[in-house]
Amino acid sequence: MAEFRYNPLLDDWTIVNGDRQHRPDMPKNYCAFCPGSNQIKDTYTVLKYDNDWPSMMPNPPQPDDIDTELFKTAPSYGKAEVILYSPKHDASLWELSIDHLTKLVNLWKERFIEIKKDENIKYIMPFENRGKEVGTTQPHPHGQIYGYGFMPLRLKLELENSKKFHDKNNKSLILSIRDEELKVDKRVVFQNDSFVVFLPFYTDFPYGVYIVPLKDDIHTFEDFDEKTTEDFADILKKTQGMFDKLYNKVFPYMMCIYQTPVNSELENESKSYYNFHVKFYPPLRGENSIKWYASSETGAWAKTNPRRVEETVFELKDAYKEFMEDKEVIW
Predict the structure, then answer these.
(1) Do the beta carbons of residue 89 and residue 34 sit within 8 Å?
(2) I want to staple 115 with a disulfide (CB 3.0 to 4.6 A). Which of 86, 89, 108, 147 is the partner?
(3) Which residues touch 228 (CB under 8 Å, ≥6 apart)?
């Protein structure tokens, strides 16, 4: 049974889908995302694929009859899509051409525009889980897009704090963070014509880079023109290539693409104080060392970075330089 369950302590919803526990184990050497599988009959370049085991859906079942005056449920309304990056089972983003990656960015844009048409969707977030260290069970290159039927707590907090900052300073907080990092220039890793990659001053992940537009008027994929699209493809390719060069292996991460909300009064209002950006959450603190979210981080949200980003930024810069000097990289 799928449903939302309300958490009164956090004023937030927990997405519950007991059916996902019954997902079948795929036969060895079988990939549902490869062309010719039972799910994907034909070849493709990039592809949208509806999640077989969605945690949210446009026609959700009615929740179990377990409500009380305190404990509330709601239908698990939303959208869960898989985005396939390439038909090649073992491909990485950095191995794909800019032309190929441009098609991926355009697919993200296309899906954002389509999902937004459903007025019950309040927030749309493309994301990627990469590597066994973050629980990925399917190595085929892919990400997902969730269209949430509610405003997730992290976004609610970021929007509230961004509005407070704007009310006081008449500036976007994300862009102010960008500008401060560019000004200080201690944690900037690299940039192209449209985007900059940096390790934010406060991140709790040793390699938790942000990608932020250099233009001030990019709020969602809808604001991407041809140049911005190509430069975003370029920055993603270089960022993942840099990560993989760091330890010369598939570098695990969670990547989340943040945009302004949809289908509420916040859609237009937030464009004055919130902007498109990408956050990476890589779990490594060393080549074979995991930065775990243990009791303090999970129970109190007291985040801890075991390393200074003023030091790890040089590791990323060296890895970026090595990637850019690799003559075998296809552009």
Answers:
(1) yes
(2) 147
(3) 194, 213, 215, 218
Query: Dihedral of CA 104/240/225/330: which sign?
Result: negative
Mean residue pLDDT across the chain:
95
- A 10 A CB-CB count for 310 gives 12
Residue 22 scores a pLDDT above 60: no
Burial 18-41 (b: 16+ CB within 10 A, else e): eeeeeeeeeeeeebebeeeeeebe
Model's pTM, two decimal places? 0.96
Where are the extended beta strands (E) located within 75-156? 78-84, 123-130, 142-148
Q: Give the closest residue to 207 by CA, choosing from 239, 250, 175, 249.
A: 239
Catalytic residues: 142
Angle, vertex CA 276, rays to CA 271 and CA 277, nearest 5? 145
Residue 252 near residue 103 (C-beta atoms within 8 A): no
Q: Helices 98-116 & 226-247, crossing angle to 10 degrees?
A: 120
Residue appearing with tokens 């014509």: 193
pLDDT-derived band at 210 (thresholds 50, 70, 90) equals very high
